[in-house]
């Protein structure tokens, strides 16, 4: 029997959409099936409809012209649209609030250095050296990583291999710069730490690794792309593009088993007995673990050690907010972070007079990064003190919040931390991106089925893009050039 589709994907989150859209653009018959269980949408117990809250953990996006994610989105035709229409650019990236210090982080490096000179006059040379070293390191990792086709096919380039060794060598020498800042009194270490904590997406007391250092090289060099719905608009645009390329989406589909069809593909069995015949099949490891014929007995516990964003949703009276207050704040607490260890916080405040909240009100999203292990076993008794601690902390950090602050909801109330949108980081600058992407793709049954394991959360959606490119390379060897 001739297969109905060249590729069938189970699930409609970003990795499957990215892979499916790329393959559909190349002329393959692609089907995406999913249960449409409301993944990524606010739950019924979530914030009220009167407020719109920012959903992502960090305001820095890899959508500039040199970023891997932007190049991929341009490849499928939505990069320029996303930047120009969906994300207005704010000239001030964000503000960092430390005990006794407040720093505007501008997109132009010289303005950022002026801010740091005002707050930390004795350490300005250390900061200048620190940023210069990060820029040099980023340039090494970016070197020769411009061709999506090469990344997909994992073709090694001598210049890239050479930059690997130079980059790793340079990264090993970065620790002394952080050490110098840490020995300087006055909050310099806190400024570096709060940015590492969010942009590198790892615990605050951990040592930065080369990848995290590369991810934060862009501090003070990019604007902020503000969009209240988090990563959902990106998925919506990609879903529209997928269908424009001839891809099909089938909702309400619960896959129960996968059967081999010899050399002519595989069969996906739906609950109730209906079947889909396809030449190749792809899904993520967590979905595969629940389907007969795909689960390999491997238990996926990666979420336990992953660093995940947890969001708290609050409302406040617009009248108490000072005129001109920045709406993206990174704050560092003086204590150890309370019951959940939320030492560093990202605060996103909705613009004044916007449609993001009822009249006279503004919405505020407070995000902290915690480990999956900390989120396990949360009870109502443990959650309530975390909420109370957060309110007290915000009132201490930002005095005007003593009046008019209302707690509305948090991710902890639904215990959905593992399902939150993945971060959109800065440019993915690793020692060999193609190998990282390919290492997250496992092929079975002579390559006709690919299982995608989500990459480390620090890589964000750019890591998932690399994974999709690697999977496209594997599937392309079987499917050929498509219908073009």
Short summary:
With 484 residues, this protein is α/β, with parallel strands linked by helices. It has helices at residues 14-25, 68-75, 79-86, 109-119, 124-142, 148-153, 158-172, 175-182, 188-199, 210-215, 232-244, 285-288, 302-305, 372-375, 380-397, 433-439, 460-479, and strands at 5-10, 30-33, 89-90, 92-98, 101-106, 224-225, 248-250, 255-260, 266-270, 275-284, 307-317, 328-332, 344-349, 361-371, 405-410, 441-444, 449-452. The chain has 17 helices and 17 strands.
Characterization of the model:
The protein has 484 residues and is of the alpha/beta class. The protein contains 17 helices and 17 strands. The strands form three sheets. Strands 1, 2, 7, 8, 9, 10, 16 and 17 form an eight-stranded mixed β-sheet that branches. Strands 5-4-12-13-14-11-15 form a seven-stranded mixed β-sheet. It has a two-stranded antiparallel ribbon with strand order 3-6. α1 (14-25) packs across α17 (460-479), α5 packs antiparallel against α7 (158-172) and α8 packs across α9 (188-199). The model is unreliable at 37-44 and 426-431 (pLDDT under 50).
